[in-house]
Amino acid sequence: MSNILVTGGAGFIGAHICEALVRAGLRPVIYDNLTNSSSAVIERLERLAGLRPLFIHADIRDARQLDTAFAHTTFAAVIHLAALKAVGDSVAQPLQYYDVNVAGTLALLAAMRRANVRTLVFSSSATVYGEAATVPIREDFPRRPANPYGRTKVAAEDILTDLAHAEPGWRIALLRYFNPIGAHESGLIGEDPRGVPGNLLPYIAQVAVGNRNELNVFGTDYPTRDGTGVRDYIHVMDLAEGHVAALEHLATTGRFIAANLGTGYGLSVLEVVHAFERASNRHIPLRFVARRQGDVAECYADPAFANRLLGWKAERDIDRMCADAWRWQSLNPLGRSEELTKGIPNF
Ligand code: NAD
Ligand code: WQD
């Protein structure tokens, strides 16, 4: 069974990737400093996948700890998710974002090179495209990120692109995620943001469960079907399975790719709210407010390249995304504040 190092593996997307890796017959090893996650995820993954992932509590900027990790285990590949991801924080603390997301990536690459591990799947983001001139967005569209977070992703993509050209031994996949939502269908792992959620789905889920009073709908005057912003929401399990497909591609023919992971269709804020109301059988009170600064009207992927090259396609629809997010939220109403220990269902 091959080992895969998953940096940021205790986080929202990383935990789901670990579950998908085990299902694919691979052994995830989580490397995470828990700045935005909880080690309770390890036990949950063990219950879910029947395999307790090895957990290394360490920082990706720490060369010594990286070397120790690579010395103890032979890795077939690395999936690099560890990063800071809050757009607003990145405006307020750009140095911290460049340090973790760019310097952290450099430290990881240097350690991989020392250990002679040269296969990497990197978590990039649709945010690299900024305000695209047209939708759907293809991989060859210009990258024009609108905030420091997006610029850290572009910087890391550029480093990886240059590395792949300079040293042909590397096999690298840049995966640009659109809007990952939902949770594993067990309700054991899911998204658990700190403080007030910045993203739409966790906010809706917290309103539905009664932790917040109403959802602020940011902008009703966009040139879209109903005036609210349109995004490409993708089930986190589809996204996770896209990583397994990318690893398989790199293990066979792939050398360097940049691929969109999205469904290819956009949904408005109101369409998502209504889907969540159906899934939860709860009413979501709304307050219509001004546009949020920096938001674009419409953003959705052309996923044809990933569909063709990786033999992968997002399959789960918005009703499934909301049903799974609701199961996770209602089984874990307080999230990390109760250390994810209560309400664990038998699965
Ligand atoms: P997350 O915050 O849940 O997961 C990131 C993990 O990285 C956390 O567990 C955190 O503790 C860890 N981490 C942060 N800094 C670290 C460091 N210095 N050393 C070691 N570990 C560190 O976020 P997520 O939503 O799971 O995102 C995972 C990746 O996907 C990130 O790279 C993010 O930029 C990217 N991404 C996320 C989205 C999204 O909407 N969630 C969209 C596109 C791309
Ligand atoms: C979705 C829609 C909002 C909250 C962000 C990052 C991006 C990527 C994914 C990491 C928009 C509206 C939201 C709310 C609302 N992350 N909304 N009320 O902005 O598409 O992307 O997360 O790479 O980089 O920018 O996602 O979930 O914040 O917003 O009306 O309380 O919901 O205006 O139309 P976004 P989001």
TrEMBL record:
Pathway the protein acts in: Carbohydrate metabolism; galactose metabolism
Top-level taxon of origin: Bacteria
InterPro entries: KR_dom, NAD(P)-bd_dom, NAD(P)-bd_dom_sf, UDP_G4E
Residue ranges annotated for the Ketoreductase domain, each copy included: 2-151
Annotated EC: 5.1.3.2
Chemical reaction(s) catalysed: UDP-alpha-D-glucose = UDP-alpha-D-galactose
Pfam families, per the entry: GDP_Man_Dehyd
Cofactor: NAD(+)
GO molecular function: UDP-glucose 4-epimerase activity
UniProt-listed SUPFAM superfamilies: NAD(P)-binding Rossmann-fold domains
Keywords per UniProt: Carbohydrate metabolism, Isomerase, NAD
Cited NCBIfam families: galE, PRK10675.1
Family of the protein in this entry: Belongs to the NAD(P)-dependent epimerase/dehydratase family.
Assembly: Homodimer.
Official protein name in the record: UDP-glucose 4-epimerase
Organism: Pseudochelatococcus lubricantis
